[in-house]
Design goal:
alpha+beta; Alkaline Phosphatase, subunit A; Jelly Rolls; 7-stranded mixed beta sheet; 5-stranded antiparallel beta sheet; 28 strands; 35% helix; globular
Length: 733
Amino acid sequence: MRTPSRWLLSPAASLIALGTLFILLPLVSRFWLGWSYPGGYVSDLAIGSLLLLLSYRRPILAVLLMLAWGVMLLGSAELVAAVGRMPEPGDLKYLTDPQFLSHSTQGAGIGNPWLAIALIGLGVACVLTGRRRWPALSRYAYALPAVLLLGHAADQYYNPNEADQWKQFNLPHKLLVESVNSAQLRAEDWLDGDVPDSPPDIAELTRLDLGGTPLLTHAGKARNVLIVTLEGIPGAYIAENRAAINSSYTEDLMPRLSRWAERSMSTPDYVLHGHQTIRGLYAMLCGDYDKLDSGTPKGVELLNNATRNEQCLPAQMRSQGFSTHFLQGAGLRFMAKDQIMPHMGFQQTHGREWFKNKPYLEFPWGMDDKAYFEGALKYVKQLRQQKQPWMLTLLTVGTHQPYSAPQEYLARYPGAKQAAIGYLDDAVADFLDGLEKQGVLKDTLVIITSDESHGLEQVRLASAWGFNLVLAPEQTTLPKLKNGVYGHIDLTTSVLDYFALPVPDNIAGRSLFRDYTTHREIMSYTNGMLRQHDGETFTECNFQQVCRRYASPGFIADSARYLGRVSGKQARLVSQRAELLDQSISGGQIGLHYQFANRQRIDLQANARDDWADNLIGAQYLEMPKGTRTRVTVKIEGMGLDRNGARLQLKTKEFDRNVALDIPELPLLQRGKSIELSFDFDNPETRKAFSFHLTGEGRGAIRISDFSVVTEPIPPELIAAQNVEEPLEALPH
């Protein structure tokens, strides 16, 4: 029998230690971190086996590879947890920055200490068991990682998916793929020649198209319009939509709304252009694409535009004599809807504060769906008592994370998300039943849709699959299924066309109340994938600017015939189209001023528990371009505070994760006093999805009289004088 010391020096012990470090630990940590995905496991096996082979009989190289592998594995876990993305090579230095670690993990240091301990322990074990005289390996040993890498590449090539990058790749594999693709793009550019790119044509994407054959021979009979917007619901939940595209998704989570769909004009191929409620509302109500990336929402940019807002649907309907109303179940301050919705033309904008009926559930965002629709039904009843025609837009919140539902629904469904959807299904169906009893459907155009899609695992394009149900007094003359590709970009045009009202020239889209014989172009950006459809070919581009093309007559399809891959200049044309569409409000300017204060009284809570639901300011998901400086000015006044005053805290986040910036702490706000402060920070790299979160605790109220955010270019001479470098707490994206 071998003694322990002799066994430690055996090749078997060394191979076990190296194999555990390079292969077993990544596989276990992937499962433990919730990153389980077939491609990810293949990536770990491929890179792990390659590193193991490279370390074999090379002790010095083995130590270097172990160090690099440990830093990359831990760095990926920490950065995904901190900012929701995989690291770039330059990010790894932040693992040695205590300020970044403390802020990004909310004071907890390294977020995965078990992984760090395992890496250190295995590294020590590998060193202790190291031995130079190992038996030689077969020359075919490297075939295993080669086959795995080729298989992974083939799967990515022929079966693209929407899974997050860290679920499909480990960091070395991602860097390897990016290097190969960059070399390929440079080679393609060289072969194409150094020909300047001309701006792509986006006329078909921005065109107002009323050339189709009208479904109605005259203006619609309805005198009012009601738009019901359901939080996060994908088109796959509507049975008729699933049947129309032969979807493989079979779960029937909204049977009652599906029965209402059978009575309506339903559009199965209905495209959502992006994520986030404010982006969906802007596209719906302003006939324009929101940003096809993570830049500042156009609804926020609209606050700086004194003319474009007049083309939005609420403003157009108001100019035609309609009273215009917006009612949502959550508070209005988040995403600045308290300012954006009135700016779009809503004369009355109400949130959680309007509801006097008692909710059935305690929900951090606001009213649960049953209580919300009961209140909305009363709101409609009040509108019907006035002589003036009206436009009302509703927005639910109950199917937003964290999902909540009564116990009877939680017992009926496998999870909280499904239970919340079932609860919404009953609530909206009861609401529609109530509208019918009131006679609303006889004189009102009712459109039921969603702001965005929370997506579905293993359902192709679920993150971009929306729905649109139309109930109109002329229902018998409308088709049950509306053929063709439509999206939120078309809703404003459709409503104005239904009432035979003039449509402004800079509104884009087609009318749902017309039949078209020609194809159209449409775009979408969800789950990090930029997608374009021209009526015959569907193109989907990933983070590497590598695009896959499919033959597909529609945008939303359960499957499509793969045509091949496109990269280089052809692929960049897709992103260039998106960039041009993104500039419809700002015109590419970056020196913009945002004012998020509305000077309204804000009642404080004794305890602020959630950075999102309890946020007192609507400055979310902004973009600060590279090479700019952002200056923030704040003034907060105390109103009727008790002697303990108010405790305020201001945080900043990127991609919903805390970011460490040198922000002055807010002092205790005393009764009858005010707090004023200003600070600035540089943006050496573009910041996207950047949010301010102001929370407060106390008894009484405050008034925010100033919260301005100004981002302007840093003068070149100042950059040269100061030798501006990226601060440690500012992470590039």
